[in-house]
């Protein structure tokens, strides 16, 4: 803990104000040292003075090749070290050799210049070390003509006060600069938010699929909340069944993780409707933040309830970011509700008049959409059914009895199927159940549930001529298949084949004779 804080203090310096001008600092330092030496001191200067000047010039040459941004730690350490040694240290050495007014004034101005570019953490620490090193060096090379130490210390006292004053002024300048930067970033973010909301309202009208709309939303999230990953899921009306989902900026491993844990995070109980109002909930962890809400939708079957969850991977959102996100969450809620209600109306317009089930045209359209969106972690299953003996019932008792048989069988399917399942009548005696987010084992369980209901399914059939009523047993042969078996393209053909095999088995095992 202590080492991490120390590292942050020493190495996390903000050089954004100074980075672009460091090359100029290096060039000016080289020119000034050479200019001062060759124009003012070359006659009286000794060899030590000349060597010191040339060493300073050599130390500043790397500054000419500094990058203008994105400095590494080595760049920062070298800059601070060279400034600390050459500014107060070198000119202290010159002052000790000649305590004249020129060197005193030069030292003070150089320290002020040094304070502008050095960080206070390093400047205040290195200043006494550099000055002490200069005193030691001067005692060695200027033993015979060493300047008055007390006067030099007094000059350093003035210079140190100037250094502190510069650091204080620089602190307020940087603070003001940082506030301006933050305000600029917030303004740009707000502009991005308004632009995103405007673009979304325009682009969403081009899409009918909520998965595509969610991908568009998450793409916008990336620009407003950078360096994060997102997962957006909508489940319901049956809990744990994902109706729509989209992911952005996360790995396949994270995608699998979200699909595994989503039933246990902000489920229906956490984002339930309270006092007839939709609530918004959130939780935060070390790696993930989760925001969830409920969606109440009115449909032809009454009110249904859905649950949406937004997973965000990365650092925690601050207060302003959370407020921004809430705007988008309300957008998600509104779009999802509108799209679900539109789907309900679309389904209503594509229903079979006799049974109230969806018709073949709607099945073809929905199945094509499911095929395109199918993926291993989001499978679907198809259950094909064929009502046995419909032709015989029609010929024996008339079409009214045949219609009653169809309606009795489809009523059983509706009651046995889950809220998330879609039940279709393809025509005649053929029925299909599409099961989202369902594997083969789960589909087989649904078939078993339907067959259990058929044990007591009796249809009273009245003879149209004699009026005699006969009770007929109803039976449906089923075949189930999953999109993960041989791919979504083959799932219908596979379910149809299994249904045909089941039908043949039913006739064979019961010694039943086929009717024409």
Task: Record keyword descriptors for this entry.
16 helices, 4-stranded antiparallel β-sheet, 16% strand, alpha+beta, Alpha-Beta Plaits, Beta-Lactamase, 3 domains, 5-stranded antiparallel β-sheet, single chain
Structure annotation, total helices: 16
Note the overall shape: rod-shaped
Cα-based radius of gyration, to the nearest Å: 40 Å
Order of helices and strands: HHHHHHHHEEHEEEHHEHHEEHEEEHH
Report helical residue fraction.
55-70%
Distance between the ends: 85 Å
Q: How many domains, as an integer? A: 3
Mean pLDDT: 78
Largest sheet: 5 strands, antiparallel
**Low-pLDDT windows of residues:** none
Notes on the structure:
- The protein has helices at about 1-10, 20-40, 45-60, 75-95, 100-115, 120-140, 150-205, 210-225, 250-260, 320-350, 360-375, 390-395, 400-415, 440-455, 485, 490-510, and strands at about 230-235, 240-250, 280-285, 290-300, 300-315, 380-385, 420-425, 430-435, 460, 470-475, 475-480.
- It is of the alpha+beta class.
- It folds into three domains: about 1-180, no CATH class; about 210-350, Dynein light chain 2a, cytoplasmic (Beta-Lactamase), CATH 3.30.450; about 360-510, Alpha-Beta Plaits (2-Layer Sandwich), CATH 3.30.70.
- The chain is rod-shaped, with a radius of gyration of 40 Å.
- The protein starts with a helix and ends in a 7-residue tail after the last helix.
- The model has no long low-confidence stretch (mean pLDDT about 80).
